[in-house]
Specification:
151 residues; alpha+beta
Length: 151
């Protein structure tokens, strides 16, 4: 697995007026051109072209559980991958907000008391991996649309 650089943040959402994955997540504006010029659709094409090689994992991390959608060949590395992201030891193009969800500092907790944590879903565009806060309802929606190509 490559060291990630582009991790797209997103929020769960019911966007019935949209199709495909955009109907269940709202992507954050990342602020860098690397996210704007085709990395997202390219990653989605990569995933869909190898969809039979993908699996779902529930990974306990601290007192949280993260659901992961990754290739079978990536399973053995997922725990260390998520741990590194949660410790904020990987240099990313833009902050992922993952470490503040898994290991919030006292300042993060004070900030989140005023403004609840905003990111539910992360998409590693370099490794074609998606992961999210454990949520069975979201996972059912995700499973129903991930392999369906939009019209």
């Amino acid at each position: 697995m490559k060291t990630p650089y582009l991790i797209q943040r997103a929020k769960f959402g019911d966007n019935d007026f949209k199709k495909g994955i955009d109907s269940i997540i709202s992507l954050d504006y990342m602020g860098s051109s690397e996210f704007e010029f085709g990395a997202i659709p390219e990653s989605l094409r990569n995933i869909r072209s190898r969809i039979n090689e993908y699996t779902y994992l529930d990974v306990p991390l601290g007192n949280k559980v993260i659901s992961v959608f990754c290739k079978d060949e990536q399973k053995s590395e997922i725990m260390s991958y998520l741990k590194e992201l949660s410790e904020n030891t990987i240099h990313l193009k833009e902050h992922s907000d993952f470490h503040t969800y898994i290991n919030p500092s006292k300042h993060d907790l004070e900030w989140q008391a005023k403004r609840p944590h905003n990111t539910d879903f992360w998409w590693d565009l370099d490794n074609d991996i998606m992961f999210w806060k454990k949520n069975p309802e979201f996972e059912m929606k995700f499973k129903s649309i991930i392999s369906i190509k939009p019209l």
